[in-house]
Amino acid sequence: MANVVEFIKESYTEMTQKVTWPTWGELQNSAVLVLIASIIISLIILAMDETAGRALKLFYNSLS
Asked: How far is it, in rounded angstroms, from Cα 46 to Cα 58?
């Protein structure tokens, strides 16, 4: 049990004194970057899905 308490104490010390946390501005810039990247990736996946769907529809219609 003493090892667990010691671990928690050391973890708290490391998180409060040794970790460099981003500033509010850095955090906002990172969030915007992630948002833009997510939108771009989702648009690429949408285009691939629509292309595959139309190709399959064209293929199935040609068999009828």
From this structure: 18
| pTM greater than 0.85 (yes/no) | no
pLDDT in tens, 12-50: 999 999 989 999 999 999 999 999 999 999 999 999 999
DSSP string, 6-57: HHHHHHHHIIIII--PPPHHHHHHHHHHHHHHHHHHHHHHHHHHHHHHHHHH
Nearest-angstrom CA–CA distance, 50 and 42: 12
For the range 14-22, what are the long-range contacts, defined as Cβ-Cβ under 8 Å and sequence gap of 24 or more?
Answer: none
